[in-house]
Amino acid sequence: MNIQTKASRPTLVQLPQRLHHYAFVVKDQEVNRRFFEDVIGLPLVATWCERAYFPDLKREVDYCHTFYGMGDGGALAFFQFEDEATYAEMKPTNPETGTHIALKASRATYDEIVGRLKAAGLAYRETDHGYCQSLYVLSPDGLKLEFTVDPPNVAEIDKMRRADAHSELTRWLAGDRSPNNHVRPH
Fold first, then answer.
1. Is residue 185 part of a domain?
2. Angle, vertex CA 145, rays to CA 143 and CA 146, nearest 5
3. Chain segment 5-38, per-residue pLDDT in tens
4. Which pLDDT tens digit goes with each residue over 92-130?
5. SS3 content of the chain, % helix, strand, coil (to 5)
6. What CATH number does the domain containing 100 carry?
């Protein structure tokens, strides 16, 4: 793969409009539905039952693909396969480690999700990164979800980081590991 430098290639003329969906393999669609719809409050907006050839498996597979709606029209999507063997082959390994999906929320939505998680007796954690307040929770299949609320001065913070994004990456890649998050509370 020939990767060009930032200076040698322009960015897209038009950026992708939004996240269409983020797909994740689950063991049980009903357990997943109860978590995302009943606990978190995202509505189930589509269920597709399909059969398709999966190149990774080298065979046709029956599966159920569900979508939970978000305010911008995007969705979280989930696959449940026809049998345990296919699930075992396709399930994510250690999704809770190093990988997560972050969804921007209003303060009211964030607070409502906290209340829903408390009412369901589910564990979660919160972190104030300075550039956003985050709530982390694991789905029944181990998908780490993050819900974020921007601070009032998010435009100022965004402008600062856009101005030094390349120089900060260059610094990090050169071995300087000093933190640059001066907006994070101590």
1. no
2. 155
3. 556 678 888 877 888 889 999 999 999 999 999 9
4. 888 777 688 999 999 999 999 999 999 999 999 999 999
5. 30, 30, 40
6. 3.10.180.10
- Residue 77 in contact with residue 23, Cβ under 8 Å? yes
Residue whose pair of structure tokens reads 């694991």 in the numeric block: 138
SS3 of residue 132 by DSSP = coil
What's residue 139's pLDDT? 95
Q: Are 73 and 18 in contact (CB under 8 A)?
A: yes
The size of the chain, in residues, is: 186
Mean pLDDT of 146-153: 94
Q: What residues form DSSP beta bridges with 48?
A: 65
pTM above 0.85, yes or no: no
Residue pair 74/21 in contact by the 8 Å Cβ criterion: yes
Residue 184 within a domain = no
By residue range, what is the domain housing residue 122?
Answer: 21-149
* Contact partners, residue 120, CB within 8 Å, separation at least 6: 39
CA distances from 42 to 33, 74, 76, 135, 165 (A): 9, 11, 9, 16, 33
Domain count, the chain: 1
**In a domain? residue 1:** no
| Percent of the chain at pLDDT exceeding 70 | 95
Euclidean distance between CA atoms 66 and 125, whole angstroms: 27
80 lies in some domain: yes
- Contact at 8 Å (CB) between 22 and 66? no
